Amino acid sequence: MATAKYAVGAAGLKPADYANMAAVAASSTAMAAVASSQTAMTAVINSEAARTALVSSSVARKALKASSLAVEMSLVSSDGQYWNSIGTKTMRGLILYTKAGNTDNAFTITKVDSTTLASNNNARNAATSGSTGYKDWLEAFPNSSWVLSSITFYAYYRTTKIKYIPC
Fold first, then answer.
1. What global pTM score does this model have?
2. Number of alpha helices (DSSP H) and beta strands (DSSP E) in the chain
3. DSSP E strands: which ranges in the chain?
4. Mean pLDDT of 27-34
């Protein structure tokens, strides 16, 4: 409850209007404000209960994907990175979208923080089959979207990117 009150207060809303993070996550007004506040997002990432409430709510996920705080980041520093060379990116935030560098799905996230994702390629493939467009990672893998320290991945091409909200 304290995180919810702090987050909505940091986002410029009245904390008394929201009983808990589930109430915040269910409100499009509250979520638009929280998703646009760096201070509120930092508070949310520091609370496991808050993180869970947000990814469990379709209202919250929609607001997070529309956040003005979202940035695009390339994961591969050069086209010389080969698929068989594992990469690690130190980061902290919420992954919204992922994008491969080519149409053969050359981007797989294998680990978020210390949690290994399912070994089935369909369960962790960070690209849409046959496309270089963005995959909605938050919808596909809501429980693997919050990153507290790093992601581990296989990828190549500088066009391998993620959109995320840094926290």
1. 0.91
2. 8, 9
3. 71-74, 86-90, 93-99, 107-112, 115-116, 135-136, 146-147, 150-155, 161-166
4. 97
